[in-house]
Amino acid sequence: MISLTDTVAWGALQAHFPRVASEHLRDLFAGDPDRFERLSLRACGILLDYSKNRVTAETMDLLRALACESGVMERAHAMVSGVRINETEDRAVLHALLRDSRDSPVCKVDGALRAGVERTLEAMERFSEEVRSGRWRGHGGERITDVVNIGIGGSDLGPRMVCRALAPHADGPRVHFVSNIDGAHLTSTLRGLDPARTLFVVASKTFTTVETMTNAHAARRWLLDAAGDEAAVARHFVAASTNRAAVVGFGIAPEHMFEFEDWVGGRYSLWSAIGLPIAITVGMTQFRALLAGAHAMDRHFLEAPLDRNLPVTLALLGVWYVNFFGAETHAVLAYDQRLDRFAAHLQQLDMESNGKRVTLASTTVDYATGPVVWGEPGTGGQHAFFQLLHQGTRLVPADFIVAASCDHSLKDQHRLLVANCLAQTEALMLGRSEAEVRADLAAGGMPLGPSNRLASHRTFDGNRPTNTLMFERLDPFTLGALVALYEHKVFVQGAIWRVNSFDQWGVELGKELATSIARELANPDGVRPHDASTGGLVAEYRRLSG
Ligand code: F6P
Fold first, then answer.
1. Nearest residue to 312 (alpha-carbon basis) of 86, 50, 34
2. Suppose 488 and one of 37, 146, 274, 301 were both cysteines; which one would form an S-S bond, judging by CB atoms 3.0 to 4.6 Å apart?
3. What is the mean pLDDT of residues 231-245?
């Protein structure tokens, strides 16, 4: 197989790049009054305006040719047909099945798999309703008021992000999330909670992850210190996992284990039993609406032609900036306080999926792959890092996400929020030329001397690319569609970069070394040879910790 950089489509993009790179977005807009209509798409209630990108119609055609030459959609159909496309772990990749519709399915899989998904959803529905209604009681007969999810990575980030985003719909017990091995996380979360009224969800695909199991055992001790009876564990702990033996070994009754399968990757698992805290806090009807939104996006992704396809378009623009403009990072700027964990979720989704340097054919890439994904909600970021976005030396492509309507009563503030979002993308695109700055300064009465000194500082180059994603409101359906949109974006990019987006070998080495260093920190005689830095730090820790 020829290398990606030797494909016809790649060569064509390389030849095309200098022409586009020298164009200013301001001129592209001036030369085409219909640019917004032509370069915007709608699906599942989401508008994607990608007109403020450094592309022409030809760029998009060439990028779509790259997607075709890379067999992106063939791979997508293989995924939803249950082909083991996660080759290095020999697993299928079927998170789309978790949200598939019985009436109009997109997955072509065995009925038994589908039935298993439905069984888990029904079990989640029964259990979440019991907890929400107060029929489920703690060991001492008290109603549950607080649910603590103990998990990390995909067993934390997705459900945590969704619970925050759907907070206006929350009418069940309060949910809390503990992930860090740092005991401060568990301690501060449990402070103020009543063991008699607290339910723990131990969320771990493997049920072996050190952070999760350590926190789960500490939580178990906290409960037993108060309850004084081992039998309390069965009333205060449930699990979401694939590892039945380990769950039962922990003392959780098998009927209180919510199962999923190994074909659900951690970062794609919020749709599975890992979503239990979501179901408990907002109810199963809203959880099913979240799944329906994701399903609608699955269908759109699999069926829409490439030039109308939102995930494909977002992915191709990302490839354009990473591989041709040399962008190192990608910012996700949600103008929505409720999406304050959205970028964190996307970090795992994107960087654990495509932060790879070896292809599925086991060759080392000679091109860049996944960017550093980062972001904070607007408008806070405007007063922090936006300076660099506007006037720094780096190109940082960014997605701006905003809902037209809000769920609170401060409508004027929401209008200001939207105004800020739109103003930022306009400013990043247009910039302000030195001539305009000079004219402004002169109009304000500034003499020529100071004006000469200040003009360049106050000039904005513009030409900084952004996507805007706008929808009516952040309801469960739209959130589901939005998350699935990014999942498929990451999938498309992985397919183009030829990496396996579904393994995560890169997290293993650090885990292994931490286990052995933890032993050394506990036992001074057990120190093995280290490099000078690590050895010095081990010694310093010993000295400081006594
Ligand atoms: O960090 C690696 C990882 O395996 C993630 O992919 C996963 O989401 C996380 O750890 C948690 O794993 P588990 O759900 O098995 O505890």
1. 50
2. 301
3. 97
**Nearest C-alpha to atom 10 of ligand 1 is from which residue?**
153
**pLDDT tens figures, 317-362:** 999 999 999 999 999 999 999 999 999 999 999 999 999 999 999 9
Q: Is 402 helix (H, G, I), strand (E, B) or coil?
A: strand
265, 302, 317, 460, 473 from 77: Cα distances, Å: 18, 7, 22, 44, 31
Tokens 């730090």 correspond to what residue? 537
Instruction: Please state, in angstroms and rounded to a whole number, the distance separating the CA atoms of residues 28 and 538.
Output: 58
Helices (H) and strands (E) in the chain, counts: 23, 11
230 among known catalytic residues: no
Whether 95 sits among the annotated catalytic residues: the reply is no
Closest CA to 290 of 474, 466, 447, 448: 474
pLDDT at residue number 24: 98
CA distance 442 to 446: 5
pLDDT tens, position by position, 74-94:
999 999 999 999 999 999 999
CB-ligand 1 contact for 507 (6 Å cutoff): yes
Strands 329-334 and 398-403: parallel
Q: How far is CA 52 from CA 287, 322, 462, in A?
A: 34, 17, 11
DSSP per residue over 176-228, as a string?
Answer: EEE--SSHHHHHHHHTT--GGGEEEEEE-SSS--HHHHHHHHHHHHHHHHHH-
Residue 56 Cβ contacting ligand 1 at under 6 Å: no
pLDDT at 523: 84
pLDDT-based confidence at residue 136 (cuts at 50, 70, 90):
very high
End-to-end CA distance of the chain: 58
Distance between Cα 211 and ligand 1 center (Å): 10
Nearest-CA neighbor of 330 among 338, 339, 321?
Answer: 321
Query: Is there a catalytic annotation at residue 236?
Result: no
262 Cα distance to chain centroid? 20
Give the per-residue pLDDT at 522.
Answer: 87
Asked whether 420 lines ligand 1 (CB < 6 A), one says no
Active-site position among 77, 408, 411, 511: 511
- Do 312 and 492 form a contact (C-beta atoms < 8 A)? yes
For residue 267, give the ligand 1 atom closest to its CA. Answer: 8
Task: Give the whole-angstrom CA distance, residue 287 versus residue 276.
Answer: 9
Residue 370 CB–ligand 1 contact under 6 Å: no
